[in-house]
Write a structure and sequence with these properties.
Shape: globular
Number of helices: 7
Number of strands: 17
CATH architecture of the largest domain: 3-Layer(aba) Sandwich
Low-confidence stretches: 1-14
CATH topology of the largest domain: Rossmann fold
Distance between the termini: 12 Å
Mean pLDDT: 92
Radius of gyration: 18 Å
Largest sheet: 7 strands, antiparallel
Number of domains: 2
Helix content: 10-25%
Structural class: alpha+beta
Length: 301
Amino acid sequence: MTVPEHLGPAHPPTRNTINLESAQVLAHETCAGSQRILKLRAPDTARAAQPGSFVHLRCAASLPMRRPMSIMRADAEAGALEILYKVHGLGTRLLAQARAGDELSLLGPIGVPFKLSGYRRKPLLLGGGVGIPPMIFLADHMRRLRPQVAPLVFMGSEVPFPFSARPSTFLLPGMPEGCIAAMPLLEDWGIPSRLASGTGFPGCHAGFVTDLARHWLLAMPAADRADVELFACGPTPMLKAVARLAREFALPCQVSLEEYMACAVGGCAGCAVPVHTPAGLAMKRVCVDGPVFEAASVYPA
């Protein structure tokens, strides 16, 4: 197994590049499905953030333990970050009380990102649930810095999406009948998208994002698949399905893992997972050795 340089064992630790900032809440939007979009002013982190990196956020002064949060968008010029999260436990319930002007302690950016160059011409980005934000960040990066590629984004959720879907203006081969719902932001960027859900949302595919991916790949001439590579973030069962899909179609694939974290800077090793490397099986910390890995290294056949 060949591990790309940016994901290999020789990748330098990221702990020395992590900023500790007092981030100011700029806006806090309430979305459907108990979700929130938090916009923070954090100039140092915004300048250094890359698709796939995350922050470790103190949700409230009364709660010492931080929470890892994926970055959805980073504006280096404005020094701002956007984070999409779901209100679920104590930490996120306290975070949901934050208002514009509040200060939150932030560590970031943390982690090995998705690769930043050398994409194949047709990247397929798959996001599930809380794995959607890194795909938006990656799509934004591609359109800004790699205009020669044409990304496609499939997203799935079992709770309402944190945006009002609209019919896509892009025709995609192989899509199931009636699958026309898209994310407006991506459409405005000129990036086609489709949505999947098992809850019957209008215009969405009644199934998984991997179903949509298979439909799209099967509708494509076999020779054209050499232009495709996969990127994914979401729950473990979804990532395993994406890895199987990559093997089935012999496609390169990177996945961003979701794990519970305590320190998030590599000290506690509580987020370690087994990873297959050229030297054999090794325990890797998702926080600083990941969260992005080659799919075949964490979900081998």
